[in-house]
User: Fold this.
Amino acid sequence: MTALPTIATALTMHGRGVLAVDQPLDELALVLRRARVPAGADRCRALRHLALTTPGLDRLVNGVLVDPELLRAAAARFGARPPIPGPPRLVGVRLRVRGAASTGERAGRDAELSRHAAAGAAFAGCRLDAAEGLSTTVLQVRARTVAELAAACQRNGLVPLVDCATFVPGRSPLVESEQRHTAVLAALAAAFDRCGVDPAATVLGLDPVAPGTRSHQADDPVDGAMATLRSLRASGIGAVAGIVFRPPGGLRSLAAQLGALQRLCPEQRIGLLLGTGALTAAAMAWRGRPERVGAAHHELQTGLTGGVAVLRAGLAEAR
Assistant:
C-alpha cells in the first residue's frame, strides 16, 4: 500500500490539483439549467462522464473527486481495475460531514471509509463550512467534527482533502479577509492537533485571501498572495502536504495570485481545485448535444492548461 504522505504529496505535484465532479445530481441539474440544457438525471450523469473522459485529463489534474454513488457503481462494474472512466489517476470520494459521532456511529463510519478504500479511493473530500457571522464556539465545534473525520480517513487508508470554505462579507477589505481567513485556519489547525491528524498526510482546499466581492479595494494578485501566505503561517496549518485553491473570481485571476504565491513560497506545494465553475463552462460549450462534446472537452482542457502553466511559471521564476 502506498504511504498516505506520498499520496497527499502526489495530489499537488507539478502545479496540478483536483477536478471535483462529486456534486449530487440536484446540483448538477442547476449547472445544466444555467447552461440552458435540459436537466434530467441521465443528462447530469452524462455531464459528469464528459468531464471524466476529457482527453489528456491525466496530464492536467492529479486526482478526481467523485460522489459515493459513482464510486460504488464503477467498482461493482470494474472490480480491481481503475474504477473511474478515462486514464488512471488518483480517485477521491466525497464525504458528508455530520455532527459528533457516538461510539457505534464511529464504528459504522470506519467501516464505510474502509469500503471506499477497497473500492479504489485514495483520498476523501470533506468540507468545513465557516459561514459569515459564525461564532468562535460554533466554528471550533465544526472544526473538531471535520478533524475527527480527517483522522478517521487516515486510520482507514485515505488521505483527507479538507475543503475549508472561508466566507467573507462582501464589503470586507483585504485586511479583514485575512483576519477571518486566519481565524478559521487556526481553529482547524488546533482541531487537527487535538484529533491526531497527520498534516503530512493531509491536503487542504482553500479560497485565497482577497477583498470581498463588493469591496472598493482592488484585488491585487501580489497583495493577495502575501496575505494568504501570512494567514497560512500565522494559523500554523502550513505544514500540510499540499493546498488546492478554488477560483472564486475566475481561473485567470486565481492563477495570477497563485503564481505570485508560488514565487513567494516555492517550497509550498499548491494546485487547483476545480468543480462547479469548470463544469458550468463545459456545459455551456456542450449544450447537451453529442456533436458538441469535443467543444466541451476543449473548454476544460483550455482552463486547466492555463492554470497549470501559470503555477509552473511562478515556480520556475522562484528557482
